[in-house]
Specification:
single chain, about 260 residues, 10 helices, mainly alpha
Amino acid sequence: MIDQLWMIPLGFVAGILGSMIGLGGGIIVVPVLTFFGFSPTLAASNSLFAAFSNAIGSTVSYSRQKRIEYSLGLKLGLLSIPGTVVGAYLSSDVTPAIFKILFGLVLISSAIYIYLRKKIETKEKNLTKQMFVFVVAASFFAGIISSFFGVGGGIIFVPLMVVGIGMTMKKAAPTSQFILLFASLSGIIVHSVLGHPDFIQAGLLSVGAFGGGIVGARLSLDIKERYLQILVSTIIIIAAIKLFFDSASENLFLIGI
């Protein structure tokens, strides 16, 4: 266990960034675990524990700041649950090479969103029937992404609330953390039933992520967001490139080149 204590600071750093941008710390945790040779299912399932712990810490802090839309968050969270079940089962069969390519694409999408997030805020909109159907479908898809990759689903929920519903970023990121309570917990349950996580590793990540969630929520009030955008986007893009490179190397090895 001693040689795994590095997972506590990893969870803490990921928790801070995940809380501040509302995407969950999985976009940091999963690439790092993958680089250390963790299988896709182990990395994703362990990360979900950290995402859940991070969401608890963040939600506690954001609730005190009165920045969470509970009614909307509850609805989106519950709508994501069926998707998390599908995602957990799908992750059982994915190969490491394919997982790295897919997760690299998720990271690139996350980096683009983080960098442009200030430019996509819109005015509040009425939820039409067409948009309601889209929200339901997007929530289901976010559940799949959450459980399959172990990232919590914030990459879908935050843009959905900002662009689709017209919520301000000030409330979208905190509400996303509240939603992740449901998405990550349901994913944890299914992954655990399937025997995917290492509970000691998941526990260490969770300890760090909980503290990071509290710190990140507080820092979100004061830190200059532009600097955070550049830093996080750069880290994520580097991680994505590394994932693509590793996947290509594994495929070449398999075909004997």
